[in-house]
Amino acid sequence: MKRTLIFGLLTVIWCVVIYRFSAQTAAESIQTSDDVIITVSEVVVPDFDKMTEPEKQSFVDKLTNVVRKSAHFLEYAVLGALLFQFYSFASSGLYRFTLAQYSASFYACSDELHQYAVSGRGCQFVDVLIDSSGAMLAITVSALITALAVHIRNRKTRGNIK
Length: 162
Description:
Layout (H helix, E strand, L loop, with lengths): L1 H21 L3 H19 L8 H34 L6 H24 L8 H33 L5
Helix pairs in contact: 1-3, 1-4, 2-3, 3-4, 3-5, 4-5
């Protein structure tokens, strides 16, 4: 019960984080993406600080779409993993997997509809697919780790592992 409450709370908090990102106007969202790209580039790209401003902007522009789509994927991967843990009360692993995936996909759809109402933003079906794919990957990994942990625990209780 305590586990369900903790993961339920973490899931709600993460949904609020996603909602807040979606509530950004187009200009704010692009600026957030650009800030992330610049911050990471300053650390990992050799001589980034020696580039001229137009060169930096060209570099950032080339990465913007990849970073934005990756952010969609990753934020829903986190949501998928949290939902899988939240639904630990489910009667079977397949039911738990399905609940988590449907919940994440439903939230992805509602998130895109929310973005449609935000200035300069749009509703893109491809983003729902990216979001749902991120969730599915994390849910699958979570399910595999859980199955492995259960297998190991069962072997230990039978005395096969010492």
